[in-house]
Amino acid sequence: MTTITSVRSAVTAQGLTKVYGTGDAAVHALRGIDVGFATEAFTAIMGPSGSGKSTLMHCLAGLDSVTDGHVSIGDIEITRLNDKRLTLLRRERVGFIFQAFNLLPTLTAEQNILLPLQIAGRQADQALFDRVIDTVGLRDRLRHKPSQLSGGQQQRVAVARALISKPQVIFADEPTGNLDSRSGAEVLAFLRTSVRELGQTIVMVTHDPVAASYADRVVFLRDGLLVREIEQPTPQTVLDTLVALEA
Amino acid sequence: MFRTTIMGLLAHRLRLVLTSLAIILGVGFIAGTFVLTDTIDAGFSQSFTAAADKIDVAVRSKDDPLPPSLLAKIGSVAGVKDAQPVVSGEAPLIGKDGKTVGELVTAGVSFPSYRLDVTSGKAPASDGEALVDTSTARTQGFRIGDTIGVLDQKNVRHDFRLVGTFDVGVDQSLAARGAVAYTPATAMRMTGATGYAEIDVTTAGPSRESLRTAVAAVAGSGAKVQTGEEVASDLAASNGASTEYLKVGLLMFGFIALLVAGLVIYNTFGILVAQRMRELALLRCIGATRRQVFGSIMLESAIVGLVSSILGLAAGLGMGWLAVFLLGTYQPDVEVPTGTVTLSPQTIVIGLATGLIMTVVAALLPARQATKVAPVAALRTQTEEHTFRAGVVRIVFAVLFGLAAAGLTYMGVTAKPDETALMTVMAGGVLAFFTVLILGPVVVTPLSGLAGWLPGRLFGVPGRLATENSRRNPKRSATTTIALTIGVTLMTFMAVLTATMRATADQELDSQFPADYRVAAQTGDIPHAVAEALRGHSELATVAEFREVDGKLDDEDYPIGTVTSSVLETAVRPKATSGSADGFKPGTVMIADYVAKQLKIKVGDDVRVGTAKNATPLRVVAILDSQSLLPSITVPEQFFDERFGKTDDNQILITAADGADLDKARAIVDNATQPYPAVKVASSTEIRGQFDEAINGILSVVTGLLGLAIVISLLGIANTLSLSVHERTRESALLRALGLKRGQLRGMLTVEALILGLVGALVGTVLGIVYGWAATTTISESVSFRLPVGQVALFIAASGLAGVLAAVLPARRAARTSIVGSLASD
C-alpha cells in the first residue's frame, strides 16, 4: 500500500447530471457533480433526504443511466457502455450491498455468497473464501437459508458476497439502515476491516453520522450538488457539517 | 366495499386478462357446441319441413312392404290428387374400375318422388333410363348421356342411360350410400322389392287431417298413415338423436376444458390473495370485517366470471359459426343443411351459468384464505416465503384415495374383460387423479428437481436458480402443472389405447390367418368359379373358402358355416377359449363363445346341427374365441356339403407362396374376380391401412379437442409465471445488479416454465400409460400391449415447448424492468 496507489481513483465522475422526467415535471437529481473515489479507501456519501445521494450511487455503479457527464470505473468509461457490457462490468468489477432484500431466499448463505462468481463462471479462491467467512464470522451459518438468519447475519452474508469476487469497488446503499445499532456497528467494522486488511475500495451511501464516521472520507451532497467533504471524520464532525448544511 | 372491489379490478385488469381468457375459452367451447348442434338441428328441421311440405299424407310401411295394389286403391280415394310410391332397395352401381362403388352398397330409389329433386337432366321416363345422386356422379365422374351398369339381385349387370342427377335431400342414409334412381317399375325389378316402403299422397282439396282419415281407412293395419307435419317431426326427432351424440361428445371435451380453466382460476385467485396480503390487511386495519374481505374476493370472482362468460358466449358464437363454415367448405359430400347460426336462450343460460359458477367456486378457497389475514400483516415489510409441509390430513386423504384407486384398478385389471371391468378401471383412474391432485404439492418438489436436472447443468446459474424457483412454492407449482397433466393424461391414454388396439388387431390377424388377400362380395356371395380359378397357381399357397348358411343349432336359428378343410390344419389357426381345434373331425363341431354362452353349451356336449327338418347330433370339441375368423358354428366341410350342398363362398382368404412374386399373385387374384363386379379384393396391407386410417382419424380428432385443455393450462402457466415475476421483481433486480444479463434472466424464467411443463407432462404420461394399459386389459384376455414411445415422447417434448412459449411474455417483462426502480419499490 503506497501513497501513489491510494491517490489514484477507483471511480470518477465528471459533470454528472441526472434529470428525471421532462418539461414541467423534470426533477434535477444531480446537477453536475465532479468527484473521485480513491482506491483502497472507504468513502461515505452523505446528505439530507432528496439530496441525490442514492441517485449518485446508482449512476456511479452503472445501475442507472446518466443524463449528462462521464463516469469511469478504473479506466473504463461506463457511460458509453450498452446494457450487456455494463452487466459484464458489474459482474467483474463491482460489488453491491443494499439496505434490504440483499439475498435470494431460495439459496443458502454459502450459495448466496458464491452467486456473483457463479454467474461470472469463475471459481472461488478458497483461501479468500475462508478469510472472508472468518472475518464476517459466518462459518457455522453457511448452510442456512436467509429466512433462518437474523438481519445482521443477512447483511454480513451480503458483505461476504460483495468481498468474495474482489471487485474494484463495492457500493453499499444504507447497509445498516435496517439493523439495530450493535449489528450495524459489526457490519461497519467488517467494511472498514476489508478496506484496511483486504485492500478493498468501498463507497457507501448513508444518512447516519455514526456510520459515516467509519469511513476515511465523507462527501456531502445537497440539492444534487457536491457541497463539502471531510477527511478522517468523527460522528461529531459529520453531525456538525450536516447541521451547517441544513442551515 | 363494492367500490373498493371495482376500483381494485380496474386497477389490476391486466392480471385478470389471462384468467378471463381461460374462462372465455372454456365457456366458448361449450357455447360453440350448442351453437353448432342447434344450427345443424335448425337447418335439418327447416329442410324436413320443406321436404314434408309437398307431402300432405304419407302411408308408411310398418314391417312388411306395402303391397303394390295399395297404390291404385289410395289413388282412387276421394280427395286424393296424386299418389306416388317410394321404392327402396339396393342398386350395386358399377364404377369405372369395373367394381361396385364404395364401401356400402349403393341404394336404389324411384322417380317421380316428392322427396327427391332432380338437379340436372330429367326424371327417368323409360326402363332404360336412370339417375344417380349428384355426389356419386361427381366422385365417379359420370356425365349425363353415359351408360352406367347396375347389378340386379342375382348379381347380373344391367345397363342404363344416365339422364340426370338428383339431390338426396334430407335422407342421411342415401347421402352416405349414394343412390341410383329408376322408374318405379324398373326400381321394383332391379331391387327385387316386393312392395313399396311408402306411398306419398297429395290432396285435391280436403284438409290433411280429413284426407289422412280417408286414406287410413283403405290402407289397413299394415301401414302407418301420417300427415306431412307428422312425417317432418318424426324425421327431425330421429335426426336430433344423432346430433345429440355429437353434442354429448363435444360437451365432454368442453367440460374437461372448463375443469382445467377452474384450476387456473383457483390458482390465479390464490396468488392474487397472497400478493394482496398487505392490501387486505390494511382493509382489515381500517375496519373491514372478515365477511367483507371474503365478500370482496367473491364479488371480484363473480364479476370476472360474468364478464368472461359473456365474452365466452361471443367466442362460442364465433367458434360455432366457424365450425359450420368449415363443414360447409371442406366437407361438401356430407349433406349437412345449416340454417342461420343462432345463440339460443338455452345456450346463453348454460354458458353464463357454467362460467359464473365455475369461477366463483374456484375462488372460494382463496377467498377463505384471504379472511385469515391478520390486520398486523399490513405492518410487516418482508414477504414471507411459502414453506409447505404435508399435513396429516393431506397424507391421510392421499393414502385413502390411493388405496381406493389401487384397489379398484387391481379389481378391474384382474377381472374378466368386460364393460364392468373397464368402468372399474376408469373409476380407479379418476381416484388416482384425485390422489395426484392431493399429493401434488408433495411430489412436485422432487419432480421439479428431476425435470430441472438437465437444464440446471446445461444453463448454469440461471438453470439452477430456475429449478429452485420452480419448487419454492410447491402448492402453486402443483396446481399450475396439474392443469396441464389433465390434458396430457388423456392424450397419452388415447395414444396407448389406440396403439394397443392396432397391435392386437394385427396380431389376431397374423396368428389366426396370415392372409395376404381377402376376397369378399359387396352383395350376395362369391361364385365358386372364383375359388376354382384361384386354385392350381404356384404363386398362391392357400385358398381358404369360408361358407355360411342359415341353419338350426338345437332348434334355434343360427348361421352354420365351414371352411376349406385342408387349410384348417395348415393355414387357419383358430383360437379356442376351451377345448381344442385339433380334435375337429367328422362328427364334431366348433362353436363361438357367445353362442356357447347363450345356449349354455360346453366342450364335450352333443348338439343338433342342421335344418329344421334334418338335424344331426355333433360333439362340441372347441369353444372359439369371439375374435376368431371362423363361422360362429363351424362344421366339417364334408358334413356341410352333404347337408347344405355346394353353396357359394362368403369370403376367400388367400396367402401367397413363400418367395412368390407378389405382383403376379395379385394379378392372379384380380383376374379371378374380374368377371364379378360385386366381388372385391383387398390386400392385408390395404385392410390394415384402412384400419390404421380410421384409428388415426379418431386419435387426431380427440387430440385436437384435448388441445383446448392444453391451451388453457398454458394460460395457467403464463399466469402463474407473470404473477411470480411480479412477486420477485426485487429479486430479479438484485440478480441483474450482481451481473446477470437480460438474456440470462429471460432464460431463467424460460427454464422455470420448461420445468413446470415437463413436470405436468411427466405426471400425465405416467398416469396415461398406467391407465391406458389398465384399460386395454379390460378389452380382451389377450391384448398385445404397445407403448407408443414416439407419441409419448412427442407429448412430453410438446409440453416442455409449450411451457417455454408460455414464458415468453412474462420473461420479456421481467428482463425489461429497470434495476433501480425495482430495487426502490417495496
TrEMBL record, chain A:
Keyword rRNA processing attached: no
The keyword Transport belongs to this UniProt entry's keyword annotation: yes
Single GO MF annotation: transmembrane transporter activity
Residues annotated as domain ABC transporter: 11-247
Annotated keywords: ATP-binding, Nucleotide-binding, Transport
Alphabetized CDD domains for the sequence: ABC_MJ0796_LolCDE_FtsE
SUPFAM superfamilies: P-loop containing nucleoside triphosphate hydrolases (SSF52540)
GO (cellular component) term, any one: plasma membrane
One family name in Pfam for this protein: ABC_tran
PROSITE patterns linked: ABC_TRANSPORTER_1, ABC_TRANSPORTER_2
InterPro entries attached to this UniProt entry: AAA+_ATPase, ABC_transporter-like_ATP-bd, ABC_transporter-like_CS, ABC_transpr_LolD-like, MacB-like_ATP-bd, P-loop_NTPase
PANTHER family: ABC TRANSPORTER RELATED, IMPORT ATP-BINDING PROTEIN
Name used for this protein in its record: ABC transporter ATP-binding protein
Organism of provenance: Planotetraspora silvatica
UniProtKB/TrEMBL annotation, chain B:
Membrane association type: Multi-pass membrane protein
GO annotation, cellular component aspect: plasma membrane
Domain named MacB-like periplasmic core: residues: 17-206, 477-670
Residue ranges constituting the ABC3 transporter permease C-terminal domain according to the UniProt record: 252-374, 705-818
Transmembrane annotation, as ranges: 16-36, 248-273, 294-327, 347-367, 388-410, 430-456, 477-497, 698-726, 747-773, 785-809
Residues forming coiled coils: none
Compartments reported by the entry: Cell membrane
Keywords, ordered alphabetically: Cell membrane, Membrane, Transmembrane, Transmembrane helix
Protein family: Belongs to the ABC-4 integral membrane protein family.
Protein name: ABC transporter substrate-binding protein
Species in which this protein is naturally found: Planotetraspora silvatica
